[in-house]
Amino acid sequence: MQTVTFEKLIALFEQSFQQLVVPIPPLTLERLAVMVYRAMAAQTRNFHTLEHVFALADPTDPIQSLAALFHDLVYHQVDLGFSVGIQELIAPYIEQKNGEIFVAKQPNEKSRGFIFALKLFGLQPGERLSLTNGLNEFLSALVMVEKLEGLVREKDLLRLIVCLEATIPFRGKNAQNQSRFEVIEERLHGLNRAFVLAMSQTEIEQMLTTAVTFANKDVANFAETDVAKFLDHTWKLLPEVNVALRSPELYSISEYRQALQRMEAFLSTLNPDCIFHQYRNVPTAHELQPLNALARYNVSTAREYLHMKLLATAVLEALAEVSGGDAPLSLFMGERSQKGEPARKLEDYLPLTSSPDFSDESTIFMLLDKGLLSEPSFDIKNSPLSVFLYTNLGPIKIQQLLGFSKELFTGQMKPDEFLAKIDRSIVVVIARASALMVKTRRAQLLEYSTGSATPGYQKTCV
Description:
The chain is an all-alpha fold and about 450 residues long. It has 22 helices and three strands. Helices cover about 60% and strands about 0% of the residues.
């Protein structure tokens, strides 16, 4: 455990409680910090880490700081379950069946905080929890309720629950054309009446203003002014939601491709205008417009980047299939350098190519060529094979091959048929470079590069 980080957590908790004028025993601060550390410092976390917590915390706002500390405690699909101590805290409120999680049919309703969370999230006893209705956010809120109820004032606990509900991402207006924050406002009024909380309209609006500010800050990476930074964040998410990528030298070409496909599919269905939200002119229209514009640009650029990565992966996957079957990606691309030791890489055997006119000012070309800003935990920074294809194929051919690659991935096109769609000289270069990398398949790849191994391929390309 890193002492500096641990002390930083204790200090953040202590500062927040002091600002709320809530006396907390030192050992309670320690236990809260230990719980957050254990949950957020798990090896499964790449993006939703302690760094993310500290980035979200606001030294001037104890509600936002406490919300930051609790909001990602549960990340069930990433952690493959619950971290140490979390399960027993939420056990009275949930039921687990066949790998799915439900709100308990007869939960412990002695906790007013639990009822507040249930009502604010719009959930019912017995309801199945999913990513769309707030699986992780709701369960994180339950942990928070268990830890803070009785310590902080009830209205402050309510403020915190509202903040966590607000972080359920990517929601547009409902069937009644209400924004998410208009819906929560209605629920707050309902709780105010039912529990005689004596909250004024101003207090309710202040709760929601804090919540929308916190929620927008949680997704601030979508409005990065440098798209390379946005891609850095995207690449950090990949091993969180794709377990295979957590073993950098072992995941296969197809597993890597499937991870890219999932991210591309997500970005394809994401409405960039549903990332950032507004409540009663917070943020103002003038502030919101550039956030939405940057989100649209970053999402669109990331999709184009992923398309080129997928195309390069399709070529490697097809070559792997015709030479013996799927294989670890590192076998073809080369292993990551270890402690300064040089490692052979596929790019060492690809010819140097000059940048054609169409790529000179291309953002995609620059991103592929220069690479991500930081070295990923499971991947290399730049994309040499993608650059080779990008500079040798041209935009029209790239679009055609992207369509064919989808057929390859779904089994509608055989690997040799896909390779036959690519200019023969390009396939030969990549096959020969792969032969130099993969000793166990050298004969097959060299034979394939001559066209003699697959009559259908030879007939099409010679």
